[in-house]
Design the sequence.
C-alpha cells in the first residue's frame, strides 16, 4: 500500500455508485431474497418464541435450564451459525433463513421471557387467584400487559435480522450479502456502493414501517402472508437433517493440536484487542456525533445531517464494513477495529444523544446562564451529567463487540475468528468445534461479567435496541 | 446467492418440478430428466448475477447435451461446494485438485472429466511491475495474496513452492486469502498486496479479455506442473447421467463450441482418474491442508 | 408615570423592565404579565409571593431563558433578547444566576463547578483545557471564590458529595467568579433549614455589598425579605402588586403600591 494516496484512490473507486436502471432492476432478485429470508425467519422465530417466552415468564419447571440453553445459542456468533447451516443445507437462502430463525428464536424467547417477568405482579396475581390455568394467565394478563413492549422489542429485532441476513448472505446464505461479496471480490466497487445504499434504504424503510406498526399493531398481521410465503419457499427440505446430524457427529470430540494450543492466547488477545479498540473508536466517534445530534443542544442544521450519518453507520453491519475494509485496505486487525468502530459509532452516537437529551435540565441551564458557549455547556454540564448512561451503553457495546470481533475475524481481521473460519474452510471440523467452544465460553463469560457489573453499579436497564443486540 | 439457485431444493423447486413434469412429459433419455441438474462452480471473483449470466452459454450447452435443465451455482468458497456434494444440494461440481481429494475422501465424489491442461497445470506468482520482486526469496516480509484457502493453484502449490525455496508462508510473509483467483490478480494490480499466486488459465484469460494489464502485473515465477481441476459427480448420481456429462464435455471442440470453451478456459477435455491425485494428496498432507 | 420605588443614586438604572409579559412553553396563559420596575446598580431587592405567583418565570425571563411575550427588558441599556444568541450570551455574562435547587454538575469537581462561572469570558479551547489541565492561577481564583463562601477546603471534592447547604454556597461562589453586575437568586434558601438559610442570605448580602453587585432574590418568606433586603417586590398571579422600600434606619416599611400595569389589567389579587 502506498499509504494515504492509495487509500484515497480506493475511496474514490467507490464513487459514483452504479445506479443504472438495468443494475437496480437486476437487484430486485437479491433484495426479495434478503427480505424473504428475514421475514420468513422472523415469522418462524416469533411463532416459536412467544410460547417459550411465556413459559419462561411464568417460571415453569425447568425454566432456568431453558434460559441457559437459549443464552448458549445466542452466544454463538451469527456468522458461525450461518456457516453451519450452509454446511447442513447447502448454499442459498434456505441456509440463511434457518440460521436467522435459530438465532432469533433463542434471542427473542429469552427476551420475551425477561419482558414477561417484568409484568406488573398485581393483575397477574389477581388472575392466578381465580384459579386460572397458566395459559389463561398468559393470554389474559401477560400478553395484553406487555404487548407494547413486545412489539417495540420485536420491531428492533426485525431491523437486526435484516442486517444479519445480509451478513449471512456473504458466506453462502444468498441475497444481497452474496452480491456484495461478489462485487468486492471483483473490485466492482461502484456496485458495492449501490448495494450498501440499497441496504441503508432498506433498513431505513423497515425502521419507518415498524415505527408506524408500533402505533397500529394490527397492521402487523398484513406482514404474515408474505412472510409465510417466504418461509414456504425458502425453508430447507428435511433431508438436510440426517446429514446435519452426521456432520455434527464429525465435529466431536473437539480437538486442537499442541501448536494450536500454543497459538491460542495470542489469538484470543487479538480478538479482545479488536473488540476493545473497536469499542473505543466507536465511543470516540459517538461522543462528538452524539453531541452534534442532541436535540436542544445542537442546531437543526447540524443535528439533522449528523443524525442521518448515524443512521447510515448503523444500517451497515460490522461485517459489511469489514468486507469492504479487508478488500481495500487488506487483512488484519486494523480492518476489524475500523469495522467495529464505524458501526459502533453509529449505534453509540444515537444512544449517547438520547442520554444527553435525558440529563437533568437544571445544571445545564445553570451553566448556560453564565453566558457559556454551547460547546462549553456540553463539556461542563451535559457530558459529565450523562457519564453514567454513556458508560452503560459503552460497556454493553464492548460485550457485543467481543462477539462481533470473532465475526469480523472470520472475514480476515484475524484473531480466533480467523482461526475458526480457516479450520472450517479446510474441513478440520473438530478443530473448528474447539475454536467455536472457546469463543462461546469467552462470550458467555463476558456476558456474565457485563451483567454483573451493570447490576453492581445499579445501572439502568438496556434500551430495547440493545436488547435486540444490534 | 443468485436468483438461479433460488429454485433449487426449495419447496417451490419441487412445485416447479411437478408442473414441468406435466408439460414436458419426460422427453430425454435420462432418468429424472425433468429435475434440474445442479452444478456447483468454483468460487469466482464476481459471484453475482452478472457472472452467472456470463456463463449462460455453458448452461445452454449442458442443457442441450443432457436433455434436462441445468442450474449453475457460484459459491463464495470451496467448502460450500464440497459440502453441497455431501448434503445433496449439488449433483455435479467443478473442483480444484485439493478440494477434489477432500470431496473424494469425505463424500466419495467421483471424478468425471478435466481439461487436458489440468494434468500439467501451473501456478503463477505475480507482482506489480517495478515492485522489485523477481524471485521467491524476495517475498520475505512482503504482503502476499493466496486465493481460496482450499485452492490448489491459489494456495497449496504456491505454499509448497515457497517452502521449497526456503520461505515459510506462515511466518515469513504477510499472507491473506482473497477467496478467488481474479480477486488475487486484482489485489496485486491495485497494490493491496505486493505479490500473489494464481491459476495460470485465469490469468491468461483475464489478460486476453483486457481485464488486467500485463504491463502492470508481471509473472515472476511459475511452479512445477501438477494435476488440478476436475469435474466430479456426487456419489449417488446415476451412471447414465455421469456418462452423459463425460460425453458432453469430451465432445467440446474449439471449432463449434468456442464460447463454452472460453468460459471453461480450455480447448480439450479428457476423462479423469482418481489415481492422478496421489502425488497431490502427499503434498497436501505435508502442507497440513489435508 | 415614573418607575416605582426607584432610587437612582448613579443616574441610569442597571435593569429596566417595561410592561413585561411572559408565557413559558406549555403554559396555557402568560404566567407573568404587565410587570414593570427598574433597578439601580448595586441595589438589593427581594421578590416575594406565593408559589405560582410568577417569580421564577420573571427571573428566567430576566436572563433570557424565557422569551418575552410583550414588553422589554434592558440591562444597562441593552435589550435582553433570546432571539439574538450572541448578544444574549454577552448579556448573560453580566447576570449570574443562583438556581433554586443547587443545580451543580455532580460528576465534576467543585473547582470545575465554580469556574463554570468564568465560561462566558473564556474561549472554548481554554474551557476544554481547564477540564483536564487546570492552571494554578485558575485554581487560585476558584479557591478565592470558595474562601469567600467558607468552602476553600472543598476545592477538589466531587460536587455530588456535598450537602445541600454546601452545594448552594458553591453555586454562590460560581456566581462570584462570573463577576456579574446583577445576581438573580431563585429561592436560594427554599431547600435549606432555617439556620443555613440565614447563613446563605447573610452571605449573599455581604457579597453583594462588597462587590457592588445588584441582587434580585426571590423568597418564600416575607420575614426573611424584610430582614435582609431594603426593597421588596411582591407578585401574585403573574403581576407585580407591591413595591415597597424599607428604610433600614427606621426599620419601618414605606409602601408604594402604585404599580403600573396592574391598573391597566384590572384587579390583580382576586386569586382567580
Sequence:
Amino acid at each position: 500500500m502506498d499509504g494515504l494516496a492509495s487509500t484515497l484512490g480506493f475511496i474514490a473507486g467507490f464513487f459514483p455508485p452504479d445506479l443504472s436502471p438495468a443494475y437496480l432492476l437486476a437487484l430486485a432478485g437479491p433484495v426479495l431474497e434478503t427480505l424473504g429470508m428475514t421475514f420468513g425467519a422472523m415469522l418462524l422465530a416469533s411463532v416459536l418464541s412467544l410460547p417459550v417466552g411465556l413459559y419462561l415468564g411464568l417460571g415453569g419447571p425447568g425454566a432456568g435450564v431453558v434460559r441457559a440453553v437459549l443464552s448458549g445459542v445466542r452466544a454463538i456468533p451469527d456468522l458461525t451459525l450461518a456457516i453451519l447451516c450452509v454446511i447442513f443445507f447447502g448454499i442459498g437462502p434456505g441456509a440463511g433463513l434457518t440460521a436467522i430463525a435459530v438465532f432469533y428464536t433463542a434471542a427473542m424467547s429469552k427476551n420475551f421471557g425477561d419482558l414477561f417477568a417484568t409484568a406488573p405482579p398485581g393483575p397477574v396475581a389477581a388472575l392466578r387467584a381465580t384459579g386460572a390455568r397458566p395459559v389463561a394467565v398468559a393470554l389474559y394478563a401477560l400478553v395484553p400487559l406487555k404487548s407494547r413492549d413486545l412489539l417495540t422489542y420485536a420491531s428492533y429485532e426485525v431491523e437486526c435480522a435484516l442486517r444479519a441476513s445480509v451478513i449471512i448472505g456473504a458466506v453462502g446464505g444468498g441475497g444481497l450479502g452474496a452480491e456484495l461479496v461478489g462485487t468486492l471480490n471483483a473490485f466492482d466497487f461502484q456496485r458495492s456502493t449501490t448495494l450498501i445504499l440499497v441496504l441503508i434504504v432498506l433498513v431505513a424503510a423497515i425502521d419507518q414501517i415498524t415505527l408506524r406498526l408500533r402505533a397500529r399493531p394490527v397492521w402487523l398481521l398484513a406482514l404474515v402472508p408474505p412472510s409465510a410465503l417466504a418461509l414456504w419457499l425458502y425453508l430447507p427440505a428435511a433431508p438436510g437433517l440426517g446429514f446435519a446430524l452426521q456432520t455434527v457427529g464429525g465435529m466431536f470430540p473437539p480437538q486442537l493440536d499442541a501448536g494450536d494450543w500454543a497459538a491460542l492466547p495470542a489469538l484470543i488477545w487479538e480478538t479482545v484487542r479488536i473488540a476493545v479498540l473497536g469499542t473505543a473508536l466507536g465511543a470516540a466517534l459517538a461522543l462528538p456525533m452524539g453531541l452534534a445530534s442532541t436535540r436542544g443542544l445542537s442546531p437543526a442544521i447540524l443535528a439533522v445531517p449528523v443524525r442521518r450519518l448515524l443512521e447510515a453507520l448503523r444500517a451497515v453491519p460490522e461485517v459489511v464494513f469489514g468486507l469492504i475494509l479487508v478488500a481495500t485496505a487488506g487483512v488484519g486487525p486494523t480492518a476489524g477495529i475500523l469495522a467495529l468502530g464505524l458501526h459502533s459509532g453509529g449505534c453509540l452516537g444515537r444512544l449517547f444523544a438520547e442520554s444527553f437529551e435525558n440529563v437533568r435540565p437544571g445544571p445545564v441551564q445553570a451553566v448556560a446562564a453564565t453566558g457559556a458557549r454551547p460547546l462549553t455547556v456540553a463539556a461542563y454540564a451535559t457530558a459529565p451529567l450523562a457519564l453514567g448512561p454513556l458508560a452503560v451503553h459503552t460497556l454493553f457495546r464492548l460485550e457485543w463487540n467481543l462477539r462481533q470481533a470473532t465475526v469480523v475475524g472470520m472475514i480476515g481481521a484475524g484473531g480466533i475468528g480467523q482461526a475458526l473460519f480457516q479450520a472450517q474452510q479446510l474441513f478440520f471440523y473438530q478443530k473448528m468445534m474447539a475454536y467455536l467452544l472457546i469463543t462461546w465460553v469467552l462470550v458467555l463469560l463476558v456476558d456474565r461479567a457485563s451483567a454483573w457489573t451493570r447490576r453492581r453499579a445499579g445501572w439502568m436497564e438496556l434500551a430495547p435496541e440493545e436488547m435486540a443486540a444490534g | 446467492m443468485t436468483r438461479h439457485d433460488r429454485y433449487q431444493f426449495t419447496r417451490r423447486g419441487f412445485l416447479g418440478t411437478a408442473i414441468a413434469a406435466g408439460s414436458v412429459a419426460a422427453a430425454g433419455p435420462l432418468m429424472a430428466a425433468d429435475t434440474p441438474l445442479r452444478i456447483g462452480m468454483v468460487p469466482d471473483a464476481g459471484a453475482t448475477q452478472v457472472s452467472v449470466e456470463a456463463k449462460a452459454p455453458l448452461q445452454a450447452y449442458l442443457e442441450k447435451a443432457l436433455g434436462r435443465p441445468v442450474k449453475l451455482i457460484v459459491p463464495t468458497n470451496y467448502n460450500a461446494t464440497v459440502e453441497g456434494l455431501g448434503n445433496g444440494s449439488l449433483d455435479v461440481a467443478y473442483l480444484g485438485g485439493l478440494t477434489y481429494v477432500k470431496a473424494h475422501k469425505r463424500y466419495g465424489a467421483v471424478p468425471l472429466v478435466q481439461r487436458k491442461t489440468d494434468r500439467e497445470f501451473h501456478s503463477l506468482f505475480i507482482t506489480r511491475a517495478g515492485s522489485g520482486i523477481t524471485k521467491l526469496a524476495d517475498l520475505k516480509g512482503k504482503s502476499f495474496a493466496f486465493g481460496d484457502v482450499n485452492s490448489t493453484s491459489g494456495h497449496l502449490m504456491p505454499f509448497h513452492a515457497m517452502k521449497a525455496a526456503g520461505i515459510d508462508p506462515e511466518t515469513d510473509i504477510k499472507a491473506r486469502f482473497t477467496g478467488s483467483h481474479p480477486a488475487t490478480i486484482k489485489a496485486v494490480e491495485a497494490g493491496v498486496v505486493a505479490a500473489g499466486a494464481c491459476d495460470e488459465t485465469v490469468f491468461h484469460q483475464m489478460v486476453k479479455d483486457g481485464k488486467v494489464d500485463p504491463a502492470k502485473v508481471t509473472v515472476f515465477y511459475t511452479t512445477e506442473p501438477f494435476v488440478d481441476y476436475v469435474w466430479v459427480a456426487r456419489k449417488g448420481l446415476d451412471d447414465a447421467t455421469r456418462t452423459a456429462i463425460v460425453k458432453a464435455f469430451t465432445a467440446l471442440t474449439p471449432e463449434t463450441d468456442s464460447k463454452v470453451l472460453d468460459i471453461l478456459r480450455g480447448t480439450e477435455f479428457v476423462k479423469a482418474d482418481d489415481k492422478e491425485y496421489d502425488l497431490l494428496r502427499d503434498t497436501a498432507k505435508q502442507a497440513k491442508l489435508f | 408615570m415614573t418607575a416605582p420605588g426607584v432610587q437612582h443614586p448613579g443616574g441610569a438604572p442597571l435593569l429596566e423592565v417595561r410592561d413585561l409579559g411572559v408565557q413559558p412553553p406549555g403554559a396555557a396563559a402568560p404566567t407573568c404579565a404587565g410587570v414593570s420596575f427598574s433597578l439601580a446598580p448595586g441595589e438589593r431587592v427581594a421578590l416575594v409571593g406565593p408559589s405560582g405567583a410568577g417569580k421564577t418565570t420573571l427571573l428566567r425571563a430576566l436572563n433570557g431563558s424565557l422569551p418575552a411575550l410583550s414588553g422589554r427588558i434592558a440591562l444597562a441599556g441593552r435589550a435582553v433578547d433570546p432571539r439574538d444568541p450572541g448578544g444574549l450570551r454577552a448579556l448573560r455574562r453580566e447576570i449570574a444566576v443562583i438556581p433554586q435547587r443547587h443545580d451543580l454538575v455532580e460528576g465534576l469537581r467543585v473547582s470545575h463547578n465554580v469556574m463554570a462561572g468564568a465560561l462566558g469570558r473564556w474561549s472554548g479551547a481554554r474551557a476544554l483545557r481547564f477540564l483536564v489541565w487546570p492552571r494554578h492561577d485558575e485554581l487560585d481564583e476558584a479557591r478565592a471564590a470558595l474562601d469567600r463562601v467558607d468552602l476553600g477546603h472543598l476545592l477538589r471534592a466531587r460536587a455530588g458529595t456535598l450537602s445541600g447547604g454546601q452545594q448552594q454556597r458553591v453555586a454562590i461562589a460560581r456566581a462570584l467568579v462570573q463577576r456579574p453586575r446583577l445576581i438573580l437568586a431563585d429561592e436560594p434558601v427554599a431547600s435549606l433549614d432555617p439556620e443555613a438559610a440565614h447563613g446563605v442570605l447573610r452571605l449573599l448580602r455581604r457579597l453583594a455589598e462588597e462587590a457592588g453587585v445588584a441582587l434580585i432574590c426571590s423568597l418564600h418568606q416575607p420575614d426573611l425579605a424584610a430582614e435582609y433586603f431594603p426593597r421588596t417586590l411582591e407578585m401574585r398571579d403573574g403581576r407585580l402588586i407591591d413595591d415597597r422600600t424599607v428604610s433600614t434606619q427606621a426599620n419601618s416599611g414605606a409602601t408604594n403600591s402604585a404599580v403600573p400595569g396592574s391598573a391597566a389589567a384590572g384587579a390583580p389579587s382576586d386569586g382567580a
Remarks:
- The helical segments of chain C are 55-62, 85-92, 110-115, 124-132, 136-148, 164-177, 194-211, 222-228.
- Chains C and B do not touch (no CB pair under 8 Å).
- Residues 50 and 220 of chain C are 7 Å apart (CA to CA).
